[in-house]
Amino acid sequence: MLKDPSRKYSPFPPVALADRQWPNRSLRVPPIWMSTDLRDGNQALFEPMNADRKMRMFRTLCDIGFKEIEVAFPSASQTDFDFVRQLIEGRHVPQDVTIEVLTQAREHLIRRTMESLRGARRAIVHVYNATSKPFRDIVFGMSRAEVVAMAVSAVHLIKQLAREHPDTEWILEYSPETFSSTELDFALEICDAVTAAWGATPDDKVILNLPATVESATPNIYADQVEWMHRHLARRDSVILSVHPHNDRGTAVAAAELALMAGADRVEGCLFGNGERTGNVDIVTLALNLYTQGVAPGLDFSDINAIARTVEHCNQLPIHPRHPYVGDLVFTAFSGSHQDAIKKGFAVQRPNAPWNVPYLPIDPADVGRSYDSVIRVNSQSGKGGIAYLLEAEYGVVLPRRLQVEFSGEVQRHTDAHGGEMSAAQIWQLFSQHYLVPEIPLRYVEHHLFEHGRGQGIRLRVASQGKVHLLAGEGNGPIDAAVHALRALDLDLQVRSYEERSMGKSREGGNAQACAFMEVTRPGSGVECFGVGLDTNIVTASIKALVSGVNRLEARHGQAV
Ligand code: KIV
Ligand code: ZN
């Protein structure tokens, strides 16, 4: 039993913003994206990335289309410092990409950070200090004025050091760390002071980043905080307003989306939500959420699996199989009703029409995922998924009632053996039940001949080690074969018959015909499907009749 929380935790206070505008807005353009995989993400790893992994991640981020990449915390580690040098000296930074580095607002750390950037074409220097009351009171023992002075003097130093290197285009980013737990009037005061100290103008904007360093309220509260700042900043036209949600409550994506509706221009986050504790906001989910609303995100996730494998390698952390858009299972339906709906959706989805397949918020092909994994079969599955796999992998379109009949066999199999069944295993089971059995009968050969106005057949079948030559006649080959089997005491009725082409066989041979025949013994109350495969359609149908006899036998144990 959880303890009574009311004694220990208090609800987050609401923001006084009665005329909030963000609930009526929607997202129609992508934000400026900033990847902090190499900084915030890297800081959160068991084993931070080495130079090779950092370079691999950097190249991947550039390929995806990030134009701003926080590459390091140079004053915190030699690896990070060296990596910045490697990027600059090795000219690894594409023309349209700006590298960013983080520093605390302390003189010696700022100096070291600026040194790491020597020779950069363009750079964002990201300086931060924590602003919330617990940090002021408990961690630093500083007054509000002292915290503001700390930020402002850091900005003055960065400005001075930047002037000494005019060949670099310098951009300042300031983060009031723990913004979302800071009194809004104080966050505003310090942000305005930084903007003024930098001398930001509409042509030379400062980036003000508002982190939910620890997510501690519902996303609407964060949106209110961001909208409040957006509306109160003294020089809003000289500011790029950035957000940096963490995911402690599991709502970082929602918080970022609402914050953008509330006036933010820019989002900082990591691929697949890596980052401190529960992670930074997941930029992949944010971008693909936009994409599925018809907004081009400006980031390329068209081969999401390749990106995922690279990120797993660089971070040495696996991606959860249910992670939105990328997890191994997110395009997989096990449940029968889902499979049925998806199968129907695929059947009517036209290639260039708006996407409208039930249960799939995105076309898996758009992110380079195949349809193979969409429908998988286990004990929860129904006929739709089984039929889908046989059709997709083997070109066999089962009649509806046969789908029902065979799904019972699959169910018995998965109940007995557990686990999932691949398309190949399903086909094997199908063959075992419908194509392979030769008891009581095995088809050997047949010859058709004209018989008056009807059809005659000479049918050779094997039973219990003996080959029987049977003769029959009827109004067609199937009728004639049914008649011929009476000689073996097999009284059969054909309830339905369908034939389909399977296209080329898997082995690349001639096109196969597939015949499905539903048969019964009068008065038995049992109906079964038989299935026959052959390049000749009449042979396929007679094999289907023999298969039907064998299925009836299997169901009832009636020996010939
Ligand atoms: O989460 C945070 O507050 C940070 C800052 C350093 C921007 O990562
Ligand atoms: Zn962070």
Distinct small-molecule ligands in the complex: 3-methyl-2-oxobutanoic acid, zinc ion
Number of domains: 3
How helical, in percent, are the residues? 25-40%
Uncertain parts: none
- The helix-and-strand class reads alpha/beta
Largest beta sheet: what is the strand line-up? 1-2-3-4-5-6-7-8
Rg result = 34 Å
**Total helical elements:** 17
Mean pLDDT: 94
The portion of residues forming beta strands comes to 15-25%
Taken from the alpha-carbon principal axes, the silhouette is elongated
CATH topology type of the largest domain:
TIM Barrel
Which CATH-level-2 architecture of the largest domain? Alpha-Beta Barrel
Total number of strands: 14
Q: Tell me, what is the CATH class of the largest domain?
A: Alpha Beta
User: What separation lies between the terminal Cα atoms?
Assistant: 66 Å
